[in-house]
Amino acid sequence: MSQKERDELRQLWAGLVAEFRASGLGQAQWCRENGYKVRHLQYWLPKFPASDAAASEPTWMTVETGSPTPASPALMVHC
């Protein structure tokens, strides 16, 4: 395989890895739907680490607890 062919293959897999990560699918499902072998995807994944800043930042979500209740003591001590 020539250097040009290796570069083209690397470029192809860089795009495929990006598509896989953006899909939100598991490895097996993505490979099945796109006609690739899981072992090939697993070979290429570490070669293209997720450098996207959003991928390394935590994701926050809003949780609604219903109507607020007045604070009540958890422990009451009588002297």
Number of strands: 0
Helix count from the secondary structure assignment: 4
CA-based gyration radius: 24 Å
Shape: rod-shaped
Helix content: 40-55%
pLDDT < 50 stretches: none
Oligomer: single chain
β-sheet strand percentage: under 5%
Mean pLDDT: 84
Distance between the termini: 86 Å
Largest sheet: none
The helix-strand sequence is HHHH
Q: How is this structure best described in words?
A:
The chain has 79 residues and is an all-alpha fold. It has a domain at 3-50. Helix content is 51%, strand content 0%. The chain contains four helices and no strands. The chain has helices spanning 3-23, 27-34, 38-44, 53-56. The protein is rod-shaped, with a radius of gyration of 24 Å. 1% of the residues are buried. The mean pLDDT is 84.
In short:
The protein has about 80 residues and is an all-alpha fold.
